[in-house]
Hints:
By secondary structure, this protein is α/β, with parallel strands linked by helices. It has a single domain (3-303), classed as Metallo-beta-lactamase, Chain A (4-Layer Sandwich). It contains eleven helices and twelve strands. The protein has a seven-stranded mixed β-sheet with strand order 4-1-2-3-5-6-7. It has a five-stranded mixed β-sheet with strand order 8-9-10-11-12, with no helix packed on it. It is globular, with a radius of gyration of 20 Å. The structure holds zinc ion.
Amino acid sequence: MSRTVWITTAAIGLGLAALAWSFTPQSLSVAVEGMPEVMPMTRPQPPADMRVGVFQTGHMDSKALFAYRGGGFDDRVFGMDVVVVDHPQGVLLFDAGFGRKVEEHAKTVPWLMRVTSKITPEVPVIDQLSGASLSPERLRGVVLTHAHWDHVSGLDDLRGVPVWVTQRELDFIHSGHPAARLAAQLGELHYEVYDFGGGPYWGFAKSHDVFGDGSVVLVPAGGHTPGSIIAFIHAPDGHSYALIGDLAWQHEGIDIPAERPWMSRLLVDDDAAGVRAALLRLHLLQRAMPDLIIVPAHDRRVTRTLPPATRADALKKG
Length: 318
Ligand SMILES: [Zn+2]
């Protein structure tokens, strides 16, 4: 074996070993110093007729190992699920899931992501609205947790409905970044930029109380994308939810806490340090508030515990 072949073989071997190591279990160290204090606040008073539900628009079959370090080879269903809040002041969707043209939209995804997960469309939101006694006209907006393709595909079917984003996320969409390719390709949507005028909220620096009654509160949580957010939703039945987008793909990311393996971070995260900081905050929040239902956008084990939006009693008649 020539010296060059030997060195190349050794380098490839070391590279593969390092890659394999990057999938091994490693929890983030929960150092509470320097973390903002997580203050359980007084419970808000959501209107009695506010309803929370979920639309399932599709899924991807993948493995836990891609979602968090130490995940192993067990199969996971990554749901493309859209939470809907029917509030007397307006109906909000959280993300748009897979739309009617999802197969075409999926072509904007990097090759490595396409080959590591299989896409299965279910029913786009636009085709589920009537079953939930909703019409596009009743939608006050689609609040994006972030602008990656699997969260914006359904926007193509909802043109005219306001799309709520932070200025940082809108800048990301217009930046030419490959991870925002589909959002940019969708062209001019009816974007509504909101700001975080409210004070600290549950360990996060700033907040925006959407309806002024504490029922829906948005906080900035950049990292996965520059302008990612978390939405806290407090339902009149006493359930509180934290829609965390893709900060973690599966709940173990918060429970352990553990970040995505290196390869996944490289493919999808804008700022891995920002994601780690948010995971730690959420881990502490879950410790302080065990009843809070933390909802990673793609953990169907969690989203299927929410009421189906199309069930007659889940959402009030429009
Ligand atoms: Zn996603």
